[in-house]
From TrEMBL:
<dbReference type="InterPro" id="IPR003743">
    <property type="entry name" value="Zf-RING_7"/>
</dbReference>
<feature type="coiled-coil region">
    <location>
        <begin position="53"/>
        <end position="145"/>
    </location>
</feature>
<protein>
    <submittedName>
        <fullName>Uncharacterized protein</fullName>
    </submittedName>
</protein>
<feature type="domain" description="CT398-like coiled coil hairpin">
    <location>
        <begin position="11"/>
        <end position="187"/>
    </location>
</feature>
<keyword id="KW-0175">Coiled coil</keyword>
<dbReference type="Pfam" id="PF02591">
    <property type="entry name" value="Zn_ribbon_9"/>
</dbReference>
<dbReference type="Pfam" id="PF24481">
    <property type="entry name" value="CT398_CC"/>
</dbReference>
<dbReference type="InterPro" id="IPR056003">
    <property type="entry name" value="CT398_CC_hairpin"/>
</dbReference>
<feature type="domain" description="C4-type zinc ribbon">
    <location>
        <begin position="197"/>
        <end position="232"/>
    </location>
</feature>
Length: 259
């Protein structure tokens, strides 16, 4: 394998890791923000229920006070009945009393209906309380975890950047510029050629090109995938078993050993 290609594979590992860390540092706070929005929405729904409960209670207080007013009116009218001397007046007062009693019955029915609504709202509030508590607990734990992970990622990223810079200094300018150009456009600049395919874009190689790729010597120019443009490397240790004659340490294993 071309010596630069081997170094580019290591560089790509650093680049992929740096990108993963950067993406995680952006994604985690976004997830926390989503949980925050959800918790706020649930708290809003709960507040609506609490507000409706308060309205029902205020309504019943008014109804109870109206009942008392009607009872006082009945009491007053009864006294008028006792003092009345004209039959027509007695009849009129008794009408008033009957009317007030009717009003009290209506108010008491309305009060019962309000109590039923309160019961239903209280059940809704219990569900809302639980949902809000769960959302807040989720938010708190995700928020703490995110802060912890992002802080760790910052340190990891700084370390990867140091390794990246050191690795780039080892690679020839031409290889590096091809790599940078493709990596910028495609996310990665180097791809493994395995089982006659580019593992990045899955394009099949023509047999002649495949043979050429497998039998290159180290000084030959690096080959790129005709479809995606990535620099290709071939790892005999990972090629189809029937073609493998002797055990060869895989390039990945060798790189890991060397790190
Ligand atoms: Zn390709």
């Amino acid at each position: 394998m071309h010596p630069d290609l081997e170094k580019l594979i290591v560089l790509q590992q650093h680049d992929v890791e740096a990108r993963r860390l950067r993406e995680e540092m952006v994604a985690l706070p976004k997830q926390v923000a989503q949980l925050q929005t959800k918790a706020a929405a649930l708290a809003g729904q709960r507040a609506v229920v609490v507000d409706l409960l308060a309205k029902e209670e205020a309504l019943r207080r008014r109804q109870e006070s109206d009942v008392k007013d009607q009872q006082a009116k009945i009491e007053k009218t009864r006294k008028k009945v006792e003092g009345a001397t004209v039959a027509a007046h007695v009849t009129a007062f008794e009408h008033e009393i009957a009317f007030a009693k009717g009003e009290i019955a209506k108010l008491e029915d309305a009060e019962l209906e309000s109590m039923e609504r309160t019961e239903e709202l209280e059940a809704q509030k219990r569900v809302a309380d639980k949902a809000v508590a769960e959302a807040e607990a989720n938010l708190a734990s995700a928020s703490a975890k995110s802060a912890e992970t992002v802080a760790a990622d910052k340190l990891l990223l700084a370390a990867v950047e140091v390794k990246r810079t050191a690795q780039r200094a080892l690679i020839g300018e031409t290889a590096l510029s091809i790599y940078d150009r493709i990596a910028k456009a495609k996310g990665t600049g180097v791809a493994e050629a395995l089982n006659q395919k580019c593992m990045a874009c899955q394009m099949m190689f023509r047999p002649q090109r495949w043979n050429d790729l497998r039998n290159r010597d180290n000084d030959a120019e690096m080959m790129t995938c005709e479809s995606c443009g990535r620099l290709l490397y071939y790892d005999p240790a990972r090629d189809s078993p029937q073609r493998k004659v002797v055990e060869v340490e895989s390039i990945a294993a060798r790189i890991v050993r060397g790190l």
